[in-house]
Amino acid sequence: xxxxxxxxxxxxxxxxxxxxxxxxxxxxxxxxxxxxxxxxxxxxxxxxxxxxxxxxxxxxxxxxxxxxxxxxxxxxxxxxxxxxxxxxxxxxxxxxxxxxxxxxxxxxxxxxxxxxxxxxxx
Length: 122
Fold this sequence. Notes:
The protein is an alpha/beta fold.
C-alpha cells in the first residue's frame, strides 16, 4: 500500500458557501466534475500520486466538529491560508503550532461546522 489515504470528502450544508470558503482560504479553483450534483474537487494530480478529495452537499453527508480530522496541505507556510479563515467565515480552533520535526499544524472550523486542519513544514 503506497498511502493510507485514497480520497477524502468534506460535507457541506450550503455547497456554494463552503466552496467559496475553501477557494478563498486555499487560493484555488475547485473543479465541478458532475452536472446537477453539488460536488467539487480539490486540485490534485492523481495520475502522479497526489491524494485528492471533494466537497459534497448530499443527503447522508453531515458536517461535524467531531470525528475524523482531515489535514489539508497548508502550502509552503500554513500561516497564509490560516490568516484567511476568519475573514472567509470560519474560525481558528488551534493556531499554528510546531509539531517538531514534522513541521506545523493548525485546526480550524469551516463555514459548515467541520473541524479541519492545515499542515506545512514551515
